[in-house]
Amino acid sequence: MKEIILTPAMRMLTELLEQRTGQILSENRLWRIETSLGPVLRAHGLKTLDALADAIRADASGAMGTQAVDALLNNETSFFRDAHIFALIGDQLIPAAMRHAEALGREKQLRIWCAGCSTGQEAFSIGMLFQNNRARWPDWRIEILATDISHTAIARARSGVIPQMEAQRGLPVSDMLRWMEPEGDDWRISPAVRGMIDFRIDNLVAPQAPTGTYDLILCRNVLLYFTAERKRALFSALARYCASGGALLLGAGETTIGLTTDFTASPEHRGVYRRVDPA
């Protein structure tokens, strides 16, 4: 790939992204920076990245910078992404968390945190999974916190409206018909699923939304965009909010090796990391 030479405006925008989110733009994302920011340029009648950088500096409210950062984030997601992971959650991780909670004499409620939830498909998938299995878990309740730093992504997630093309990605037709309602050319997630999820704007560099501890934390395909130093800080934060005996799920290309001693890889399930209780 041709070497990309950063202009002063590009450097300012990438530094703004890292400053606000902790994320760095990899080489394969740098070449798309102008394309990603195209909608922001057009919305404000700007012609170049230099003009956008100047507008961000002049905007005391910080709103212009927020729009630019939102545009640079990768919000790729889909329903039941990596289907085997959701089979694992339903068949192994949720039942194990329930047994652990019962052994501790806790009330029949599980808490799940989707960290870096994008437009909500991961959290909606967990809600559907739980609803589909209510006969197995009749007395249990589930509480899902879903956070993302993108204002645009969280606004979409809160609306519950899913474009037709996105609704067809990974979602079985039976679940679409059971847990979604047609709305014009789009689909809206049913209140039974939406009501299970608390969508919050939050920054994983310094999370404020989580409270207490969570039995299961999903932070998949997020670490890819962080430096090793940021990853260590993120694992420390995740450990603070992961319950004793709890589990952390990472993406296929992510690991805790050399970055934290707070989690250890599950010998049975790839991509699952168990919370190591402090000595």
From TrEMBL:
Entry GO MF terms: protein-glutamate O-methyltransferase activity
Pfam family membership, one: CheR
UniProt keyword Iron-sulfur, yes or no: no
Protein EC: 2.1.1.80
Keyword hit for Protein biosynthesis: no
Matches recorded under InterPro entries: Bact_Chemotaxis_MeTrfase, CheR_C, CheR_MeTrfase, CheR_N_sf, SAM-dependent_MTases_sf
UniProtKB keywords: Methyltransferase, S-adenosyl-L-methionine, Transferase
Name this protein carries in UniProt: protein-glutamate O-methyltransferase
Organism per entry: Sphingobium fluviale
